[in-house]
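Protocol step 4 of 6.
Sequence for DUF4314 domain-containing protein (Anaeromicropila populeti) entered exactly as in the expression construct, tag removed. Do not edit the line below.
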Amino acid sequence: MFKVSKRIVKKIKADYPSGTRVELISMDDPYVKIPEGTKGTVVSVDDVGTIHVHWDTGHKLGIVYGEDMCRKVMQ
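Step 5 output, structure tokens:
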């Protein structure tokens, strides 16, 4: 894992405010397998740029900047 600059974290926080709907593109978590295409709601973004999501499947797992991918879902 690499360090994320404050500028990038600020942009992630602006792009993914609490309540934003997202769809998972890819995630490589060895313990929890959330299928690609799963949707969820952003709860917060922490100071290292992780987007914390409550997934519609009931899981609560973050999108790690530089490792996982998601996209906003337009409502």
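Step 6, annotate. The CA atoms of residues 30 and 61 lie 12 Å apart.
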